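Justification of computing resources. Each target in the renewal requires a structure prediction run like the one illustrated here; the chain below, 97 residues long, is used simply to show the kind of job we budget for.
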Amino acid sequence: MRRNEAQSIGDVLRLTIQECNMTARLDEQRAISLWRPIVGDHIASSCGRPTVKLGVMSIPVPGAALRHELTMNRSSIIKIINNKLGKTVISEIRFTG
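Resulting structure tokens:
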């Protein structure tokens, strides 16, 4: 079988992602990967692995003092994540005990 139009693998992947409605989930995974660079290795290693569902990022934080500090800075963390992604992906962050 011969193809008349050659497509790059990147174009094929983008089209497949759009057709399968996977864009939102990939954006959520990108937001998760930004957590460590934004808060730093020390804080990130003190917390559990973030999860994102429907724009809400949940992060397990074992200590009350750190949880309080992160809660006080939650709006700026959301803003940084969304700015780096170029669109609103995270609407809320919850720090759980």
